[in-house]
Amino acid sequence: MITEIERFIATVDRGSFTKASQILFLTQPALSLSIAILEKEIGVKLFKRIGKHLVLTKDGILLIVVHKNLLLTLHIFL
Predict the structure, then answer these.
(1) DSSP designation for 57
(2) What is the pLDDT of residues 3-45, one digit of tens each?
(3) Helices (H) and strands (E) in the chain, counts
């Protein structure tokens, strides 16, 4: 699941599956599948796909916030 979360973060940071897949050295379908697997594992949709645009859902925003807080906590204590 860690790999899928990293791929999710990269997709959010780049704003598209295509741009994220390029930086991750994955095909776009492979990245899309990875995000779909993550969504299935945690039981929520992370993006609304509006045409070619990605919009984070409330759950997607929550995952970003939790991830960033976790990284900040790790940096403080390590």
Answers:
(1) -
(2) 999 999 999 999 999 999 999 999 999 999 999 999 999 999 9
(3) 4, 2
